[in-house]
Design brief:
single chain, about 300 residues, alpha+beta, Ribosomal Protein S5, domain 2, Alpha-Beta Plaits, seven-stranded mixed beta sheet, globular
């Protein structure tokens, strides 16, 4: 039996540089794993079978391509296992139990992280001996963020997501992750359809934070650096925040409401609709959850911290 943790992620930056000739968008992003996690357990089996278990998810959340027999045959976990078997010529299979805790389609990368954990777990179970670089190349064939999750921690990600450069571990930050209740059908496709050249940038925000990451360990409880005028929240950017504010009225209304409650700044996690508040202080985030957010019993929220 092998167990693998599949952590969620946030994007500290997400910039779109241009549109590539292959139809994908060229990205510059700094990604960071957090301790909101799914858990996958693997056993030897003659064929590949995935069994999901739901934990602490919104009541209307379920896994893509889930059927009534608890059998997932088109989910990213199944696809990752099948591709690894095909790429390596392994003759056996695996029983994979997926304990799902990360909300689906929230911008937190749960599906991609599950796929990466599958590649890592089966690499051990099947004794394949593949390197992280080899697993990353296989992961890039499954989804844009899978390569990142092979490494995890703090990474600079570019290309369409397949180029991953590990960075020095970010000093621990505390977060509140809030799942804003927006139902956006075919979310990723729809959001990218709104992107046009006016949203493109040159990657300066990402490069700036790359230069400053080593200084963040000196931040005070308000996120301000020991260097005058340096506040990490001033440099966290996500191109999709512009799209949401211009195209999705309910998101803007939620943002204004949180601002009135002094829960700001909030940053979009990936392509959302989850947002996060980041702080150096555990006390700070717990105070907000216990006071400002206490009355929102039906609003899904998580306290998390960054992990290497």
């Amino acid at each position: 039996m092998i167990c693998e943790i599949a952590p969620a992620k946030i994007n500290l930056t997400l910039e779109i540089i241009n549109k590539r000739t292959d139809g994908y968008h060229e990205l510059n992003s700094i990604m960071q794993t957090i301790d909101l996690c799914d858990v996958l357990t693997f056993w030897e089996n003659e064929w590949i079978k995935v069994i999901p278990e739901y934990f602490n998810l919104p009541s209307d959340d379920n896994l893509s391509e889930f059927d009534g027999n608890n059998y997932l045959n088109n989910n990213l976990v199944y696809r990752a296992a099948s591709l690894l078997k095909e790429e390596t010529g392994y003759s056996g299979g695996a029983l994979i139990q997926l304990r799902k805790n990360i909300p689906s389609a929230a911008g937190l990368g749960g599906g991609s992280s599950d796929a990466a954990a599958t590649l890592k777990g089966l690499n051990k179970l099947w004794k394949l001996g593949l390197s992280r670089n080899e697993l990353s190349k296989i992961g890039s064939k499954i989804g844009s963020d899978v390569s990142y999750f092979i490494y995890g921690g703090t990474c600079f990600v570019k290309g369409k997501g397949e180029i991953v450069i590990p960075l020095k571990a970010l000093p621990t930050k505390w977060l509140i992750v809030i799942l804003i209740p927006l139902n956006i059908k075919q979310k990723t496709e729809k959001l990218y359809s709104f992107i046009n050249p006016s949203h493109y940038s040159n990657g300066d925000s990402t490069r700036f934070i790359l230069e400053k990451i080593n200084d963040w360990g000196n931040n005070n409880n308000n996120g301000a650096s020991s260097s005058p005028g340096m506040n990490i929240n001033d440099y966290l950017v996500n191109v999709f925040e512009i799209v949401y504010n211009n195209k999705i009225r309910e998101f803007e209304e939620w943002q204004k409401y949180f601002e009135r409650m002094k829960i700001n700044p909030l940053h979009l996690a990936g392509s959302g609709p989850a947002v996060y508040y980041i702080s150096d202080s555990e006390v700070d985030v717990k105070r907000i959850v216990d006071n400002s957010l206490a009355k929102f019993n039906n609003l899904r929220k998580y306290i998390a911290r960054t992990v290497p």
